[in-house]
Amino acid sequence: MNAETILKDHLLKIIDLNDEQFSYVFSHFKPMSFKKGQVIIAEGDKVSCEYFVTAGCLKSFYINDDLKMFILQFAMPGWWASDYNALYNDIKATISVDCITDAEVLCISNADREKLCSEIHAVEHFFRWRTNKGYVAAQKRLLLFMNNDAKHRYEELLNTYPQLYNIVSKQLIAAYLGVSRETLSRLYHG
User: Scanning 54, 61, 93, 121, which has its CA 20 to 30 A from the CA of 43?
Assistant: First the structure.
């Protein structure tokens, strides 16, 4: 499936757009290709875009003062990624985004997204729906961390996103779960 079709299917699950409207919306997206390991957003960058993944896998992460990596998100096809605090508040990035695999994305600037939202009510509805869904997912993940041990978090990730284990290294999964590589190895073999 090509990027245009993937985005169209993604949008049409939530909103109705005719072909002319979709073509107009799609004209605001810029296709981009990245190689495995390539950085899309680095800490300190100015962030003006968000990225819709059409192929490959990205990770959004933060590295603290002790140089420990915390993974906030793995973004697979049909998912969005950016440093949203930097994007919406016009501040420098604190979250980095890079490519776990070669990746294809559709990039839309904050300005173009806002323009589309003001021009087409359905697009505004889509982005509001997506923001709400993202907020709920973040809240669920936070509660999972607060209320469950590493084994339960690991099992939940495995049940929810089994395809991750074919794409993402165990070291990155450990960083996502907030455990050491050794702890993950015990969970994986236990």
Answer: 54
- Distance, CA of 144 to chain centre: 19
Tell me how far apart the alpha carbons of residues 12 and 126 are, in angstroms, rounded to a whole number.
9
Residue 190 has pLDDT above 70, yes or no: no
Cβ(33)–Cβ(107) below 8 Å: no
Are 36 and 102 in contact by the 8 Å Cβ rule? The answer is yes
Of the chain, the end-to-end C-alpha distance in Å amounts to: 39
Architecture of the domain made up of 3-119: Sandwich (2.60)
- Cβ atoms of residues 52 and 12 within 8 Å: no
Pair 39, 90: CB distance under 8 Å: no
Q: What is the rounded average pLDDT for all residues in the chain?
A: 91
For residue 188, pLDDT over 70 is answered with: no
Supply the pLDDT for residue 189: 62
d(CA 116, CA 97): 25
Residues 6+ apart with CB under 8 A from 40: 34, 51, 58, 81, 97, 98, 99, 105
